[in-house]
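Supplementary Methods. Inverse-folding protocol.

Structures were first reduced to a discrete structure-token string of length 105. This string, shown here, constituted the complete conditioning input.
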């Protein structure tokens, strides 16, 4: 039996849930180890983290299937390159966002 699914781990999670409003468990990527899948079965919900430009839609779908769509409460897209989001005109984006009067002190 995996230590992640042991009675001791279940007790630790139950005690944490009683003591705190939110208990966040960071796991390795779903496709690399089974840790995320095992822990997903023991939690109320999961937040999927996806690396922009690197994680294929097939990998995302496998993660959703492994965790269960009903458990996923949202997705975080990390390592986004603003230049790609703005069609390569990063200088305009940078000066508009940071240089606008609203952000001046």
């Amino acid at each position: 039996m995996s230590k992640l699914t042991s009675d001791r781990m279940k007790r630790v999670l139950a005690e944490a849930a009683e003591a705190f409003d939110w208990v966040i468990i960071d796991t390795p990527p779903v496709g690399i180890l089974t840790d995320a899948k095992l822990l997903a079965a023991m939690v109320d919900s999961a937040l999927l983290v996806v690396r922009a430009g690197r994680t294929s839609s097939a990998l995302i779908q496998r993660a959703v299937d492994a965790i269960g769509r009903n458990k996923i409460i949202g997705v975080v897209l990390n390592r986004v390159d603003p230049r790609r989001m703005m069609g390569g005109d990063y200088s305009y984006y940078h000066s508009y966002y940071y240089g606008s009067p609203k952000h001046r002190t």
